Each structure stands twice: as C-alpha cells, then as structure tokens.
Amino acid sequence: MTAPSVVSRWPGRAPYLLSILRIVAAFLFMQFGTAKLFAFPAAIMPGGGTAPLASLAGIASVLETFGGACMLFGLFTRPVAFILSGEMAVAYFYGHAPNGFWPLLNQGFPAVIFCFTWLYFSAAGAGPWSLDARRGR
C-alpha cells in the first residue's frame, strides 16, 4: 500500500489556494496604486511625486488602490475584478503596446498578468477566506 501523494490531496484545498492567490495578487497590485497615489512605497511617476487625480494615471491609482483593497478583503470581488481586468487591458494597450510587441520588453508584463488574473477572479469569485463568503455571495 502506498501513501497518497501530496498532489492528490490538493483538489480539496483549491478554494483556499484561490483565496491565497487573491490576497497575494491584491497586495502586490495595491503597491502600483499607492506608488502613484501616495508615492509609497516609492515614487514611480516621471519626475517623482504623485499622479494628478484628474489624469489617466490618477484614475488608475484610485482603481488600483481601492479596487486592490476590495480584492484583498474579497469584497464585491466579481464586479471589482472585472473592472480591474478592463483597467489593466487599457493600461497595456494604451501605455505599453505602443512601445513594442513583447510585454517583457515594453514593460507591460505586470499589466498582462493582472489583466488575466482579475478576469479569472471575475468568474471564479473570491474563495472561502473573503468578506463575500461571509456575506454569502
């Protein structure tokens, strides 16, 4: 008799791994927003400082900071994830694609990864460790 492999026990843990993925991705995503909105943890805007709120970068910073917070806590996950996925698609095609085809070379790799990660969460939901799960959504 052989012992069950670690991988064979994972399907039952998939919902919890979904929650972990959401939390980690949201934490990383929020850093892009806070960097533009508050210059924290570092100023990434050209010339340093923060993005003017009445600009595309300013709108993106609000979406990334507060949408990222919703994703972190798993609140309104499906609609917020769909909006953030769209924001990342716009960011890629408007800000990165004109600089070349390859996402690695045009600095658009994070936008592509986040676009499809949020698109997945718009379909999959937040997972069990979320405010949505507590609310029965």
Overall description:
This protein has helices spanning 14-38, 56-73, 77-96, 109-124, 131-134. The protein has one domain (14-134). It contains five helices and no strands. Helix 1 (14-38) packs antiparallel against helix 2, helix 2 runs antiparallel to helix 3 (77-96) and helix 3 runs antiparallel to helix 4 (109-124). It is globular, with a radius of gyration of 17 Å. The termini are far apart. It is mainly alpha-helical and 137 residues long.
What is the number of helical segments per DSSP (H or I, 4+ residues)?
5
Rg, Cα atoms, Å: 17 Å
Strand content: under 5%
Per DSSP E runs of 2 or more residues, the count of β-strands stands at 0
Provide the residue-averaged pLDDT: 93
Tell me the count of domains.
1
Distance between the termini: 42 Å
What is the molecular shape?
Answer: globular
How much helical structure, as a percent, in the residues?
Answer: 55-70%
Q: What's the helix-strand series? A: HHHHH
The assigned structural class equals mainly alpha
Low-pLDDT segments = none
Tell me about the largest β-sheet: none
